[in-house]
Amino acid sequence: MENASLVDEYGYVKDGKVFLKGYLNYEDRQIGEVKRTEQEALDYFKNRFIIAENKVGQLEKDIEEAQNKGSYLTKLVQLRKKLLGFDALGDFPPLLDRLDAQEQLLSELITVNQLKNLEIKRALIAEAEAIADSNDWRPTADALQEIKTKWIKTGPVDKSAEAEVEGRFQELLDGFFQRRREFFNEQNKIIQERLDKYDELIRLAFRATRLGDLDAAFQEVRRLNNAWKQVGEVPIKKSGKLYKNFKKATTIFYTKYNDAKGIVIEKKIDPRIEAQMKMVDEAERLSRQSDIFAAAERAKVLLNSWKEIKVPFKLQDKSLNDRFRAACDKIFELSYLGRVLSRKYPAFELKSQSEQIRTKIREMEYLVKREKSDLQFALQDADGLDPNNAEDKQVLNKINTQKRKIAMKEVILREFQKQLETAGY
């Protein structure tokens, strides 16, 4: 500071350069140069000290308001480093003291949090230890994944305990998932052996269809059938195709065998399917009945009876289902048309046959037009509906019902038009 041309409380000017006086263990430091006058230079760097004060004040405010205060420790260290090299004139020690006070506060909080985190992680380790030896793979894997998620969300522990808890937790996870991998590898090996066995039985079954000695082939196919039952389970997606191929081979053989032996196999009809066949026949007769209102009442009874018949999916006859639904739809559409005609045309029965048919056509065309308009409106809101969502599925089912009803009305319309051609205009 000797030979300084201008001296201030916290700095001075010497040889056209501005210096900050040393403080604490830090020596005098050049912080700038005189651009115009020495006093202006000192004033400029005094004003810059306000920036340093504001940065410390803002950090204190941020720490006070923050929930995770410990995350500000790194920012505090960085700010202290910047202050020690900041070009300004002012009283730096009080600012550094304020940072020291904040650092002590944060360090104490971090210590408390690390102890809490250690307690939480040890509890999570105990949870994992309780289930890590389980062979109930799926729920245990889900539970361990949930524990791992909690672990990740838990903050760090003190360095002295970190290796211990992290190592133990990872050991538990690795141990379980390694055992699971080994189990499923063994399962896959067993399944592959079974698949190979099924393929071999299919090959032998097709070979049996080509044997000249039918009696020997018959015994071979019986043996293969018994062997098939002993192989064991495989994934259902593969078992279906395998059994279909095996069934194809045995069916070819039994058809050949029965033809050669003159054996006639009467195909048995499931009693439930037989009951449905009778109901379909009755519903189709009702759809042609003149008293359509009585037919509609009977159709309601048939519908309830149909629902009570529980036919397994693999035995269901789609054509029977479609015929029954179509017959009932036709009955209810004709019944509704009949009510419309009775209401709008009290003297309907006095009209000529051709006039009656024309009236039916006119009313049915109106109903089709109205329902198509309703359907178009419904379809506008159907885009983006998810068939896997219960509420969306209900809306889509309603739309499909509308389409089916329109299709049946159009079928009835075509029948009326043919009747009109027969009756003559």
Automatic annotation (TrEMBL):
Cited InterPro entries: DUF349
Domain of life: Bacteria
Pfam families xrefs: DUF349 (PF03993)
Record's protein name: DUF349 domain-containing protein
